[in-house]
Amino acid sequence: MLLDIKRFHSKPKIAVHKFSSCDGCQLAFLNAGQQLLALSDMLDIIHFVEAGPINPEEPVDIAFIEGSVSTSEEAERIDMVRKNSQFLVTIGACATSGGIQALRNINDVNEWTKSVYAQPEFIESLSTATPIAKHVRVDLEIWGCPINSYQILSAIRALLFGVIPYQEQDKVCLECKRMHNTCVMVAKGAPCMGPVTQTGCGAICPSMGRDCYACYGPAEQINGQSLGQRIQGLGYQPEQVARKFAFINNAAPSFAQASETMQEAQS
Description:
By secondary structure, this protein is an alpha/beta fold. The protein is built from 12 helices and 5 strands.
């Protein structure tokens, strides 16, 4: 798929918008350091509150969105962002699949706020936290919790050349094999999510002897039921397995289905 780069300004304009999130994915820009400075010579950063520029309503060529839609204000604001953007990119688990805050979707959010805040009536929140794609058209999703600078820089470079960025679809297990890591599921009996998670992190956790937490979301054509049964074989209850799928990317359809299957097995 080619982009109509003729519609870009002579010096492309980008914006980085924050919704409900922890700011970790925005740091992928700031952590780029010198490369970010070089990038600023190629384009104009119109809106990026964490870095300084504030101009949320100016039309841009590329808008990056961090965070899920969790308030009524955000539900209105994302429509404005979509209208003012030629190309919209979601970055990170919160924007692509609701993130950890989407755990509220399977519980009573009012009960949660009452248990945490002394005056819950002042908390304005929707009963659900949803991915950006549930509200507006999304042109590209970059998965990760958080994403890294390489993902951001390579995506921008590809978009400036008028092509959709290449995204790896390998599973974390393949990354471990390439790095000659010992399988933590086989060697330690750890409930690793590597067989169903797409790579992108460089298999950080398994490289440190820990099981994968599925930060980078579901890989293509996963078999969640099979992995769930394998983890049960390690001594874990179906409810515990369900929580593995319903952790960071719980609103991703394939993970949500696997989690639901495990919960049904528990009952």
